[in-house]
Fold this protein.
Amino acid sequence: MTFADIGLVALGGGCGASGRYAIGLAQARLTPWPGWTGVLLANLLGCLIIGVVAGSGGRDPWVRAVFMTGLAGALTTFSSFALDLALMVVATAWGQLIWCVLLSLAGGTSLILAGRAIGVAWFGASA
């Protein structure tokens, strides 16, 4: 690992964290959806990004550093997901909790597989 590698991760991470913040703001301001859907959207987008990079074969280490570790790592957030679930438990919003968990797991897995297929199609390799 070099300082350049750390810089690449930081570059991707800055973009991912900014994107996550923007998605949350846009969701809150532009939709009537519950607050947890902003986290869901960010996590699903991160899954798609990871899938595309995985499907591309990640030929260049900088691609993994910027897009998987940096961008997708900062865009997706387990701690916010867990907080949303805890708030739903406290509010006894069981229906929303079930939807949030199901959409996160099924959607995330599906988007990783779809992204991987896109990466394979675009770049002709698989990881």
Notes: Residues 3-123 form one domain. Residues 94-123 form the longest helix (30 residues). The chain has a mean pLDDT of 90. Residues 45 and 122 are 18 Å apart (CA to CA).
